[in-house]
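Hi R.,

Here's the chain you asked about this morning:
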Amino acid sequence: MNDQIRQPQTSLHTPLVLNVAARIRDLMTSGEVAIGQKLVTQSLADQFDVSRSPVREALLLLAEQGLLEQIPNRGFFAKAMPESRGDPAEPLLREAGSAYHRIADDWLADRIPSDITEQMLRDRYGLTKGQVSEILVRATREGWAEPKQGYGWKLLAVAKTAESFEQIYRFRMIIEPAGMLEPSFKLDLKVLADLRRTQERMLEGDIARLPAERLLENGAIFHEELLRLSGNPFMHMSLVRVNRMRRLMEYQANLDRNRLTVQCTDHLRILDVLERNELLEASYLMRQHLSGALARKMPTTAPGD
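And the predicted structure, written out as tokens:
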């Protein structure tokens, strides 16, 4: 048996593996994964919508960084997180998103054309074929890239302007309040409790502690899970898609963490009303919440909710 601890080889891992590792670390930082808790590969793969292979590599990487304990024949277990923000795992998120965000920033700033090829991205950003493929898959999933017929890729202008950003919010102001009034809407107290815990943790310290991407994801999940309760899958799928498009613009903005306090407070008010089964009031509060969020973001379109 080889009991030697391998030295971290962060640079050898793909952006997908680094991204998964960063998300696991966020779960540990926020307390969603407790000290001593076992991390199950398949559960994490389902949660992050990836295969088991990158999750396995991410767990090994975090074990190398000293954040997980790998016990032979038993698996991976969470260890105490370092107090310092400068711990060895901190570069994971930066490296995981850097190339993707550089490409997104260049597209938003019109530094690259709408018609691109994989070879052009490899040459311009110094990436491997596999890294470019993963970035384009993610951009396609988030709604701002699509393969062209025959050869090459096209970058789409969704959520690239203040006008399109406003249109996304106005679309949300239509479907999200309406979802709570659908005949098929059904309260799920477990879902509401899970959402409440996340919002309360943010107010208790996660707003200052967690990476911006995780905070943005928490906001998106809140809205998507509530719309899922509508029982209308087309409403839910539409929101998921426009949220992915919206993230493109958010990558370029600076996150105002103070604004997230207002967001979380609004979210908790909506949950209070839903738990009393006052759906009409909850629908009204949701529209007011989205309207206020749009007003605060325009014209700078800073991210948050």
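The longest helix spans residues 189-209.

Let me know if you need anything else.
M.
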